[in-house]
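Risk register update: the risk of archive-format incompatibility is retired. Evidence:
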Amino acid sequence: MKKLLKVLFGRPTIIAIAIILQILLLYSMLTVIEQYSIFVRTASVVIALMTLVNLINRDMLPEGKLTWAIIVLALPLMGVLLYLLFSKNVLSRKQYRLLKRIDLESFENMRDDLPTQQTLRLKTGKLYGQAKHIAVSSKVTMHTDTLTRYFASGEDFWQDLVEELQKAKKFIFLEYFIIERGDMWDTILAILEQKVKDSVEVRVMYDDIGCISKIPSNYCKKLRQKGIRCVKFNKFRPLLSAVHNNRDHRKITIIDGIVGYMGGINLSDEYINHTHPYGYWKDTAVKLVGQGVKNMTLMYLQLYNMHSKRVEDFNLYIPQEYPVYPDEGVVVPFGDGPRPHYKEMVAEQAYIDIITQATKSLYITTPYLIPTYRLTQALRNAAQRGVDVNIVTPGIPDKKVIYMLTRYNYRALREVGVKIYHYTPGFIHSKTILADDTVAIVGTINLDYRSLIHHYECGVWMYNTRTVQQLKDDLLHTIEVSQLQRQDSLNALQRIFCRLLMLFTPLL
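Archived output:
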């Protein structure tokens, strides 16, 4: 009974009810107005047609255009209003000025000299273009001399993270979609509190929606009382706005600007298998030591400054010297996110570049397989030209509707030879891609519209690093304990439901 009352009167339920009531109120008002005025009905049709012209000429995904066109045509006045409210972010002049100042501060720390570019071109060969495009579109740089280590489980990641946090001398930056009280976070928090006492600067940034049912709404204030500089990313208010659709899905730890972690692992006990809501939780992460951490530090400061609404001197957190690892390959830690912060869909294009340039093999792990049309075609084309394409998805779902949509998308890929596996021990949350045993991305990027369009995401593009071989070994082991999907598992009613739902996936 206590658990039921907590759900009924909890913050997520109250917010959901508030938003639904706002939508119903708007719809009722507009319906009444249209019924009693021929002029309004005529004007609504004209406005809808003008909106469609704007939509057709707009730079956005074709799937998104189709969805919005259906909404505008079905509900002319209400549809136009929803389109204006939710189809894009509109920053105030003050926010635009702040963004430009942050970009300028970042640019000053991201310059490459010509000798460095020549070295990178020699090291990466024909794949230089992949790395260069990611660097340019994400406003970062390519790096050598960076030690990498791959973690095949949350348990291994946590053990190493704790050891490195205890070594921190100057600062610790944490940015996570989910923080939840339990063994993992309580252990980390105890270290952070001690580091504050040791005069180490500690910052924490977490997503408000990601943590909405995990920690109290005033948790950020409690962390500040402990001496931790805390920012609640995109604080959710129950008002109709597109900005609430843009969440911080990144998982980043930076220690002294030298050591960095990035991957799919949040700071919650299920990620280290201290709890088992969906069987064994399979997740991955990458550790960087050296020059590549510079990208991560600047990415962190960019978002932190946007939400703290001030621009600080980034040079204070960039080391003057880095350790050198000449035997390592090339790394490009990068960020992605919605416009206007990012002009391109960085992650989607990075995946497409890897897929289209693969010649022998492709391995992908993703918890959700709801790819864009461009990604679907890239995967199909790869399989048809003879590339061995393997995709691993969960055997046990965390979200049943999303799992149904994931399975719905199997047919278009399986019919051209893509091999799709279910991770039978439980839920696979890792987000990885590996091509031809040489180039890979490990990060936070799901193959769905939320990650590719709406969320702030991050990943590490790697070429010929030790991590690439470690990832390959883990992928082969993962496939060994997974089950190849040979036939459709959806009935006719489920397929009809998925077809209808797929119309709206670009907005979800």
